[in-house]
Amino acid sequence: MIKLIASDMDGTLLNSRMQISVENIAAIKYAKEQGIEFMVATGRNREEALPALEQAGIKCAMINLNGAQVFDAAGNSLFTVPIALDTVSEILDTLRAADIYYEVATNEGLFSESQAKRIENFSEHMAEMMPHLTHKMAIAMTSAQLEFLPVNYVADIKTLLDKPHFEVLKIICFHKDGPAVLGPVAKKLDANEKLHVTSSGQNNIEINHRDAQKGIAVAHVAKERNISLSEVMTIGDNMNDLSMIQLAGVSFAMGNAKIELKENAKYLTDTNIESGVGKAIMRAIQENLA
To answer: What are the coiled-coil residue ranges (predicted)?
Structure first.
């Protein structure tokens, strides 16, 4: 029997309106009534993840920034896995040389060097996740959402690297030409044994410390709770979910998931707009999947 469920958010728990459906909420509540813990494992930082969860009335532990941070349900930080600052400097040089827009998630918040580029790149990302949106609609929705997400704009992020106790937890990069530009850079950076490079969409890459992966974080949480990996269930849709999909005794790929994720998951559920998370949870409990 499963005892711990870890679900991705974007493209998984969240629907096309970036909300948690009534069916998903009901299934999570039912799981909790059965003594099963639910948590999210997301590339988002905690501040970005909280609004949708609070709107749904879900209070849970979180794996954030692909595993670079883990919080308990009360919001207490359990551990962080930062990237060495000299390595960060080298990464930023590489991204700048390729003219790739990036943002840096740190222990002091999220940093960007351009508001205009932030809106432009996030609207492209949103249009990818929601193909029915026109370009104008994607920009409008992006602007509205980003207005509520705290971000610090600075002229040069590299000047922050000399600050005492400053930690860089994740670097997320965007480019409208997707793999054509991002692919070679991702390959170069992932060759560094200190780094793990993954993606949550066609037009982005996400750079973390090699030990900051969702699967590693899920395993850590399970061990803390004395739960075996065979009793863990994970649900995801994209490549930054692969490590936790491969790890869990019960794993579900969303109907809208990448092919490679579907190939690695034990089970398949419906898409995020069809409440695939809720259906997966109910199936796992009712069929006692293993």
So the answer is: none
Q: Are residues 89 and 203 in the same domain?
A: yes
Sign of CA dihedral 283, 247, 107, 11: negative
Domain that holds residue 153: 85-209
pTM over 0.85: yes
pLDDT in tens, 68-115: 999 999 999 999 999 999 999 999 999 999 999 999 999 999 999 998
3-class secondary-structure state, position 115: helix
pLDDT beyond 60 at 141: no
Q: Which two tokens stand for residue 271?
A: 């898409």
Domain CATH number, residue 168: 3.30.1240.10
Confidence at residue 140, expressed as pLDDT on a 0 to 100 scale: 52
